[in-house]
Amino acid sequence: MASTTSSPRLVTVAACQLGPVHLADSRQDVLKRMLSLLEQAAQQGAKLAVFPELAFTTFFPRYLLEETDLDQYFDVEDPSKGGIEQSPNVKPLFDRASALGIDVYVGYAERSIQKDGTHIDYNSSVYYSANANKIVGKYRKVHLPGTVEPRTEPGAVQQLEKRYFRPGDLGFPAFRAPGLVEGALKRSSGQYTATQSAGKGDPIIGMLICNDRRWAEAWRVYGLQGMEILCCGYNTTAFPTTASGHQLDHLTPEAAEEMVMLHHKLSCQGNSYMNACFSINVAKTGAEDGNPLVGGTIIVHPLGHIIKEAQTKEDELVLATIDLADCHRPKSTVFAFEKHRRPEHYHPILDRTGVIEPDLL
Ligand code: CDV
């Protein structure tokens, strides 16, 4: 697809898909796999490596666990001791990223220690900048699927994110990633109006986690901050379930997986198009202890097409060189929000959560 006429802002990005992580796999082994993907990405010129949701462990919300069994899955963030970058489970990834000059998005289970010593748990991601040598972005998953109480029907699949995590409290904060593209306009470069500097600064990044990618509102809040790259890691069950946690019995496993893949791609492609941004959507995939997760790691263009797609359900690097200038034409034409949006008619989006149907005739 041809670039727009604005100057190219090229960056090579890597979606670091992970194959299954089983209950018996040690944190160290998983970290080794992630480091290997990071090395390969850097060798091939990538400046950004995106890992899945809850990357370091199996997708534990599928199990009903006691508090003591849960602890092992979390990384503790204690303001008095430092954040996730101090965790021995994670630090080597960021140290290596700094040495290789490659940024990292990674999902993890966050145990946030409060002033009174209690903790709140979140399903989180951070963006580590190699250029800044620190975390420059943080996100806590807002849309938590599943139930608080375990489903009781025989054979039901559990999805206990609502039990283990609190909904994210940070909103959808876009941020700029320094050093990702060459020649980015800086505040110190001079006085520019917002129109003059639009699309010329350091890349604007947004982060979502798994189920969030299905919610247009989340993308739009980032879109309204000029997001150019959306990073999203996921663990998505390879079959759609009913409200009671059962597989749809009229579908073969193949048809079920095809449907899950369709909805995943529709969400990523549609929302990338409607917000004129690239998106890097990265799976943890394969069967974790017999529990199938869909693959479908994709890098999507602002015009909605898939640039690159994973071919396996294993650890796999999906690499693409993207031109952020490609966001510019749709952002200044069909999706020039300032010209065409009509927020005076969007009240129901803020005023209600669920559906209110028109009165019966
Ligand atoms: N980890 C997830 O958020 N998974 C959900 C499943 C449960 C539907 C998803 O939206 O992919």
UniProtKB/TrEMBL annotation:
Q: Where is the CN hydrolase domain positioned along the sequence?
A: 11-324
Q: Which residues form a coiled coil?
A: none
> From which domain of life does this come?
Eukaryota
Name the keywords, alphabetized.
Hydrolase
Q: Which Gene3D superfamilies match?
A: Carbon-nitrogen hydrolase
Q: Is Hydrolase a UniProt keyword of this protein?
A: yes
Gene Ontology molecular function, alphabetical:
hydrolase activity, acting on carbon-nitrogen (but not peptide) bonds, in linear amides
Q: Does the keyword Metal-binding apply?
A: no
Q: What is this protein called?
A: CN hydrolase domain-containing protein
Q: Which organism is it from?
A: Talaromyces atroroseus
